[in-house]
Design a protein that fits this description.
single chain; Aminopeptidase; Alpha-Beta Plaits; 2 domains; eight-stranded mixed sheet; five-stranded mixed sheet
Amino acid sequence: MTKFRIQLRHRRITLLVIAALVLSLVVAAGGLWFKLQGNISTAAMRGSESAPTDSRMDLNILLLGSDTRQMESSGFGQASGARSDSMVLVHIAAGNKRIDAVQIPRDTLVDMPACADTGAGEFAGGLAMMNSALNYGPACSVSAVESLTSVHLDHFIEINFEGFMSIVDALGGINVCLPVAMKDSKANLDLPAGEQTVNGSDALALARTRHAVGDGSDIARLGHQQMVMSAIVQQATSKETLAHPDRLYSFLDAATSSLTVDPGLSSLADLTSLAVRAQAVPTDQITFMTMPWQPAPQNKNRVIPSAGAQSLFASLNEDSPVVTQAQDTTHDAPVQIFNAAQVPGLAAEYSAKAAKQGFNVTSVTNASAVADKSTLLTADTEEAQQTAKALAKALNLSIKPTTADVNGVQLNLGQNYQSLTQPEKSPVKTTNRKASQSLCG
């Protein structure tokens, strides 16, 4: 493993905040409660600090990655103040049905509102980059994100460089899968291609590298970071962590020692309540996505939200699923579509829609008997099950796949087919990834 160093002249990490999300995926253990409670630091958010924890209500949390240098470790360079090099707006849906985590680019320009002095000075407001708000305290970042998104925030969680590395190390490292070798001397990154386990220093270097991905911009690395996010979530919720009390405690100790939270999350009971909610969400319903953006008219090297971003934020406000445009439009498992509703041309209509979305439709025919209910059957293979889920999403059907003795995927359209169709939403074009997705995929 390489020794991690950060040079001031280069952009800082935009992914430290993901470790804070991981904390909300594990429930604290009772015997060490008071030790962990003493680790937690707090900062002001706004006048009213409490927020609902009732799982029937949705919840919005701002995760902040700070570039502050006020830490014990050396090798991080020198800097004054603090900036949020990572901002993730996390929406936990009512009933804990899903989590949508939206990365907001640090280079986003916003007309920030004025910020009162909560301990780091006051800010008069004005056009500025999003990351500069944290220099005036987390409350200013909260205000800036609410102004940008029109989404009311209930909590914030902040973490720094040192905290990110200690959390990854407490997990015993994370597993990653790189399609090609990655080298970036400016981030002190040198990792081979393929599956491997990396420690905190290398995980941080991998997350912050710009020169080893895309065009070297802040935007280019956001999609790659989603793989690292998924790796941390998968490791934190794995048997290797949950079934080993010593590792679980080390993780929780590192996590609580690394966080600054609003007073509404200042007790271990508050964090545990949040953990219970997040733990109830299946990993295939945890989606990381980048805020849709476009170049800022004032500066082509800065960005502003696009129309797709407004649609995304509206979905969060409505607590409705975000419809994203699939990155992979081909699905290899064979799909059979049967008309069991006795509606002429029904199977052909759905077949045309499926084929247009890249599905391999191998059979379109009338069912041997009329059926009241529609079914979506899938073979007991990962390929077929993923294809079935994608098919339901592509056809806008509120129907869950059921494992059965079929070849590939079989959609049977019964007489209730019209009631399965959800209101159409235009897909949001954004880089996105499920937490359950294969790290090599």
